[in-house]
Structure formats: structure tokens, C-alpha cells
Amino acid sequence: MWWRRWLPACLAWGCAAALCGSRGLCPAPNASRPEPGQCPRRRAAELCAWALSSDSLLDPFPVDVIQENYVRNVKNCIFSIVYPTPFKSRVRLVAVSEDVLENILDLDVSVKGSSDFLEFVSGAKVIFGSVPLAHRYGGHQFGSWAGQLGDGRAHLIGVYTNRHGERWELQLKGSGKTPYSRNGDGRALLRSSVREFLCSEAMHYLGIPTSRAASLIVSDDDVWRDQFYNGNIKKERGAIVLRLAKSWFRIGSLEILTHSGELDLLRRLLDFIIQEHFPSIAMNDSNRYLEFFSTVVSETANLIAMWMSVGFAHGVCNTDNFSLLSITIDYGPFGFMDSYDPNFVPNTSDDERKYKIGNQASVGLFNLSKLLQALKPLLDPRQNQLASQILEGYGEYYYSRFTELFKTKLGLLGENENDNFLIAFLLKEFRALQDLGKHKLFSEWVTMYLLRLNSNKGDSDTKRRTRMTTVNPRYILRNWMAESAVQKANLNDFSEVQLLEQVLQHPFQRQEAAERAGYSLHPPAWAKHLKVSCSS
Ligand code: AMP
Ligand code: MG
User: Fold this and answer.
1) pLDDT at 395
2) DSSP states along 383-409
3) Which residues are catalytic, by number?
4) Is residue 196 within 6 Å of ligand 1 at its C-beta?
5) Of 94, 341, 372, 458, residue with least CA distance to 241
6) Whose CA is nearest to atom 11 of ligand 1?
7) Of all protein residues, whose CA lies closest to atom 13 belonging to ligand 1?
8) Residue 130: what pLDDT?
9) Is the beta carbon of 187 within 6 A of some atom in ligand 1?
10) Domain residues of the chain, as ranges?
């Protein structure tokens, strides 16, 4: 459609002044600009030499026919075209991930100092080739069908295909209202954005599949929130994270289409996802939806086992927050356990303790059963039966991944019937390893453990130590660490956000600055009663 291609170029190159009071990124089109979605030959130091493309998301699907930005029920589309709402006040750059800029986005880090960059990552400037979109999805929240949810405060600003041929979808979070904002203001707070920025990057360096974060900005615009839902409404500041994923589609992306009987669109979206993101599945395979389901089941089990291996509780395990690529997305009231407690609930708004850490594996199963429900209209009776069998295998698969990960943490090689006992005992003490020696069964456990280590074939203490230090992190983003960084950031001191961003890039390595900050110690006394809520 001519207007779709005309509009973004126009916005990026000057006519924007007439349309939304904004000006283009560069004074004039630059000969070195790549085609949208293609990588430049070298890292771009200026955004004029850099482009996104939204075509690969717009071309395969019908787009929302309404283009005005007001809250409504949207039908028969995957995306609505909607532009970010820039902040009214000044914005400041809090932090960037240099790794994401350089190695994913092919940008020279010096770009972070430019005003173009600041305007781009705060949603004030539209990059060449970008048509900002809000995705229509639904979801099961806390066990019940919640209907239409969608990107209520996020804009998918385009796809970037980098020098490695990787395709990344860029999303601004906190960038203003969309048709899916329901009663929300379209904004995200500094505190929640610091947590998302830091934790998504930290999870990546822990080796856990996750979305990434490129940048974090804060404005002086007021955002009002009742943090603990107790009537105490406070003024906070709006912030935006530029976040990236290979795909932002969730279980709820498919669910909403099945719920509204849009089965043709369901099939198109599913085929698109399989073609783009599941290369091992052949598009002419009549069992491709079954293969897809089987992959999501095993990868979701794998992801949750990995969460458990670092004591991570997501906090809001709704189907709209469960990625079809089985990566961790939508960081909200998450938490890392300080000591092992299967009843650990990071989200103080979760009164029924539905998403306590010990429930995550079974919640994963529930969410996958909702995925299967969404796929059902596309499966024949035999495939439906096979899909149910695949789902039945989830528990066993999860448990074997969980055991495997914990055996690696303990340095165990091969198989032994007592391994599960060794793991279960250790889990009871988990993080408080300093206190392990006080346990009355400790010496018995050590005897068993040493005996078990003797059965490691071809192993040595040095080899084992090397293996174990690469899987047992010294630093994870505990609540108190994020909170300390947030408190400073509220006063425009972004040093601790930046320090944590650096430290968490090497979670397995002892670092002086991190030791000085106490990041490997028990939480300080002031942090004993820290609470995080859904309010973000
Ligand atoms: P979350 O719990 O952040 O994953 O959000 C659940 C749903 O609520 C999604 O559809 C979000 O887009 C929407 N949402 C959350 N906060 C806001 C907000 N401040 N404004 C608009 N929509 C929001
Ligand atoms: Mg969400």
C-alpha cells in the first residue's frame, strides 16, 4: 500500500513537522543509508545511516482498518498502526547495553551521545523504514480468559536484520497509549523500567533465553501510580526501554484469534511464525502445527527449568506473558529467591500465591494447555490426540531438564540413583551455602556427595571446579540491588544502574567493584521487607 511506505519515510525526512511537530533524523537523505531492514557495511555512528523495516510484519497480514488512536475492541488483524507519544518534558539517557548496540544493532557506541539517538529511543523520532505497530493479543490471566489485552504501552517500531543475518524486532515499552491501552496511561515507570532493563540483560548473560534491552531513558513527565493498591497514589516518572526479541508473539497472540473465530488469520499467523522462527519444520509438512506444539512444549519446559536453576520467579505467568519462542519476556514483579523456598512469591499483588516459584512448572503446563486449545481448530482428530500425548510428556521432560541442570551445578557426571536426593537436600539450603554446614544432616550429605564425586569418570577437582564456576553465578539481580539502583536513579544518579549492567555481564566472575558493593553477600538489613507489586 503506497501510503504505508510513504508515511514513515515522510516522518523520518521532514514532512513530519507538518504531521506531528517533529523533525527528521538527518537533514537530507544520505547516500550511505542501507535499504530498510538491511545491515550497513560497517557500524553506523549516525542514525541517518541506519534503517528499520516493518514490511515483514505488515505485508503478510491484514492491518487494523482504523488508524485513529483510541481504545477499542480490534478485530481481523494482527497489528494496529499507531505512533508513539513523545514525552512533553526533557528526557535523559539512563543506560545502554553496548553489546546490544554494537553486536545486534550494528551501531557504533558513540551514537549514544547524539540527540538523534535520544529522540529515537524515547519515541520522539521515527527511524527510516519504521511503521510503529501495536500487536493485538489476548490471554489467560491468573487462570481466567481475560479477552483482548494487546500492546497497551508498547510500540513495535520495526525489524532490524543485522550483519549476522539475524532478524530482531525492536519495541519501545512505555511509549504511550495504543488501541489496546484499556484503562492504562500507556506509560512505564522508571523503577519498573530499570528492573526490566537490568534483568533482561542479566538473564542473557546467565545463558537464559530472554528478550534483550538496548537502552533506558527517563523523562520528567509525571506518571501517577498506586504502588501497593492501598489508595496511596504517588507521582513517579515515565521511562522507556528499547527492547528486542527475535519475535514478540505470545501464546495470547494465537488465543485471541481462536476466541474470535478468526481461523484463517490464525492459520496465517501460525504459518508465518513457523516459517520465520522454526526453520527445522517444513512448511509442506501436514503435521507442522503438531511439530510446532511439540517444540514449544519442550522449550517452555526447558525455560522454566532454567528459571528454577537460578531461583528466578517471573511473577506474572499469564499466557500473554509466555513467548511462543520460549524466551523470558515482560519483566514485571519478578524476583530471585534469597534462600530456597518453594512458596516464594515475588509479586505482592498475587494474593492467592498462584505464581509462587514452586508453581511455575505446573503453570507452564496450564499455559501450554491453553496453547493447545488455541491450536485445536487447526488439528485433525488424530493430531489432537497426539498433541494431548505430547502435553502429557511435559512433566517428565521438565523434570529431566531440571535434574540435568542441577547435576551440572553440583559437578556431577554420569548417572546415579541417589542424585535426586543430593539435589533435593541442597535445594533446601540453596543460596545460603554459607549456612549449609550448620544443618544437622550436612556431614551425611557431604559423605554422600564425596562418594558420588568419586564416581565421576575422568574428572579432577580442578576440572570440576572450572565446570561448576561457569554454571553457579556469583551475582544475580536480587531485589535489593535493583532497588538500590532505582533509588539512586530517582535522584538522577544512574551510576548504580550502569554498574549493575556491567557486573551482570559476567555473573560467574568475581569482580572487585561488585564485591565492594556487597553483591555476593546476604541482602542488607534495610532490604528485608522489600516488596514488588504489579504496579509498573
Ligand atoms: P503486563 O502485566 O505488563 O504484561 O501487562 C498486561 C496488559 O496490560 C498488557 O496488555 C499491557 O499492555 C497492559 N498494560 C499494563 N500497563 C499498562 C499501562 N500503563 N497502560 C496501558 N496498558 C498497560
Ligand atoms: Mg505482558
Assistant:
1) 98
2) HHHHHHHHHHTHHHHHHHHHHHHHHHH
3) 320
4) no
5) 94
6) 152
7) 152
8) 97
9) yes
10) 2-245
**Which mean pLDDT values do the consecutive 10-residue runs of the chain (536 residues) have?**
41 34 43 61 84 97 98 98 98 98 97 97 96 98 98 98 97 98 98 98 98 98 91 95 98 99 98 98 98 98 97 97 98 92 92 96 98 98 98 98 96 93 79 68 88 94 95 96 97 98 98 98 90 86
Q: Which residue has the cell 541417589?
A: 418
pLDDT of 25: 55
- Reading the block at residue 447, the C-alpha cell is 559423605
Residue to substitute in 149, 223, 256 for testing ligand 1 pocket (most ligand atoms within 8 angstroms of CB): 149
Nearest CA to ligand 1 atom 6: 149
Calculate how far, in angstroms, residue 269's C-alpha sits from the geometric centre of ligand 2.
Answer: 19
Stretch (H or E) spanning 188: strand 188-189
Q: Which residue, among 116, 87, 216, has the nearest Cα to 489 in the 3D structure? A: 216
Q: What angle do CA 319, 322, 327 make, to 5 degrees?
A: 175
Q: How remote is the C-alpha of 355 from its chain's centroid?
A: 17
Q: Give per-residue burial for 266-302: e unless 16+ CB within 10 Å, then b.
A: bebbbbbbbebbbeebeeeeebbbbbbbbbbbbbbbb
Helix (H) or strand (E) holding 221: strand 212-226
Give this prediction's pTM: 0.93
Cα 181 to ligand 1 centre (Å): 7
- Identify the burial level of 114 via C-beta atoms within 10 angstroms of its C-beta, where 0-12 means exposed, 13-18 middle and 19 or more buried: middle
